[in-house]
């Protein structure tokens, strides 16, 4: 108010000039802060950050309680909490001083109920962010697990206010990680300034196009989805069931010893920026290979092993597999159907 009073009541041109200069400076720094925020979301983190998350994905498979988490001394983590819901969703929370972050790791498919959740591909609204997989939503919200996890994170941020929040998981755990991060940021559970990064490994698709666009629009939520070669779980549920992937794609290829990053690429042909259908390797999914080359088709499932994901990241850290430093250029293609039911 005092600024506009000075501007309107200014008796000479110099007063008005000084007032307008202040407005220009404020606008400049506001724009600069916006660009910095955008760069944060669109930069590719180092392989070491992915390595921490991949190791936690393996660790959460091996522990069943907080005591087990405390005994896991072969990992450079400080245990924070171990949560288990009434629907058998297990989550480990650890503290990393290497990356200055609180890391939340969801266990993947392990119990009989997990398979039932995977099979429930009907869609339901997710806090106004779009439609998502019913089974995964139930696994995350059952017994108010998401509330418990949020409270654990907030307690940690009280002691480590400058730390980031990283969410990860493998397989079904990757889907739950993506949903949990979207809820945290999309409903402002951690405050407007808190950034959240998700590293899903071998994730199935979790929501529809509206959900994808909502996640993309969240300035404090970045998703870097890692796919190991021909991991078949990452191709399901299929697009014709109204499912899309979210976030950036990091595609690891042992055969060529290189990784590629694709900006907000879902592997859904030319509907999005970044990677052609062939790069996504759907071109290898033809009906004859399954019938006559069973050894290759086994790779669809072997590539899903969390140990292969850890191995790929560690090879990248050692330089044996190149790690992307930038996103690939867009390659427009016409998507085709490889099977009568798989597009």
Write a compact overview of the structure shown.
The chain is an alpha/beta fold. Helices cover 42% and strands 17% of the residues. Strand 2 (90-96) and strand 3 form a beta hairpin.
What does this structure look like?
This protein is of the alpha/beta class and about 350 residues long. The protein has twelve helices and ten strands. The chain has helices at about 1-10, 15-40, 45-60, 65-70, 110-120, 135-140, 145-160, 170-185, 210-215, 285-290, 295-300, 305-320; strands at about 80-85, 90-95, 100-105, 125, 130-135, 165-170, 195-200, 220-230, 250-255, 260. The strands form two sheets. It has an eight-stranded mixed sheet with strand order 1-2-3-6-7-8-9-10, with helices on both faces. Strands 4-5 form a two-stranded antiparallel ribbon. Helix 1 packs antiparallel against helix 2 (about 15-40) and helix 6 packs across helix 8 (about 170-185). The radius of gyration is 22 Å and the shape is globular. The N and C termini lie far apart (about 60 Å).
Number of helices: 12
Shape: globular
Rg, please? Answer: 22 Å
Tell me what portion of residues adopts beta-strand conformation: 15-25%
What strand line-up does the widest sheet have? Answer: 1-2-3-6-7-8-9-10
Major pleated sheet: 8 strands, mixed
Q: Could you list the spans in which at least 5 consecutive residues all have pLDDT below 50?
A: 1-7, 25-38, 266-292
Give the rounded overall mean pLDDT.
Answer: 80
Q: Order of SSEs, N→C?
A: HHHHEEEHEEHHEHEHEEEHHH
Number of strands: 10
Structural class: alpha/beta
């Amino acid at each position: 108010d005092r600024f506009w009073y000075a501007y309107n009541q200014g008796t000479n041109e110099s007063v008005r000039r000084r007032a307008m200069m202040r407005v220009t400076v404020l606008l400049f720094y506001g724009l600069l802060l916006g660009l910095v925020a955008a760069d944060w979301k669109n930069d590719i983190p180092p392989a070491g950050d992915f390595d921490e998350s991949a190791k936690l994905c393996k660790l959460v498979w091996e522990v069943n309680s907080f005591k087990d988490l405390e005994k896991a001394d072969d990992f450079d983590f400080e245990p924070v909490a171990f949560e288990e819901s009434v629907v058998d969703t297990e989550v480990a929370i650890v503290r990393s001083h290497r990356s200055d972050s609180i890391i939340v790791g969801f266990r993947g498919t392990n119990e009989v109920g997990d398979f039932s959740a995977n099979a429930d591909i009907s869609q339901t609204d997710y806090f106004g962010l779009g439609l998502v997989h019913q089974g995964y939503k139930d696994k995350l919200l059952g017994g108010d697990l998401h509330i418990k996890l949020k409270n654990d994170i907030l307690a940690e941020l009280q002691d480590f206010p400058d730390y980031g929040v990283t969410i990860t998981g493998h397989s079904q755990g990757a889907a739950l990680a993506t949903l949990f991060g979207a809820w945290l940021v999309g409903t402002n559970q951690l405050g407007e300034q808190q950034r959240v990064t998700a590293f899903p490994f071998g994730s199935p698709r979790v929501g529809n196009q509206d959900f994808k666009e909502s996640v993309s629009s969240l300035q404090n939520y970045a998703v870097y989805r890692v796919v190991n070669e021909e991991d078949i779980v990452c191709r399901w549920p299929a697009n014709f069931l109204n499912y899309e992937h979210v976030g950036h794609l990091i595609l690891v290829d042992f055969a060529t010893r290189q990784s590629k990053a694709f900006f907000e690429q879902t592997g859904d042909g030319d509907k999005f920026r970044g990677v052609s259908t062939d790069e996504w390797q759907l071109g290898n999914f033809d009906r004859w290979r399954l019938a006559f080359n069973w050894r290759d088709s086994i790779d669809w499932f072997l590539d899903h092993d969390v140990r292969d994901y850890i191995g790929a990241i560690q090879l990248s850290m050692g330089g044996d597999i190149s790690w992307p430093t930038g996103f690939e250029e867009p390659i427009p293609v016409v998507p085709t159907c490889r099977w009568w039911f798989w597009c």
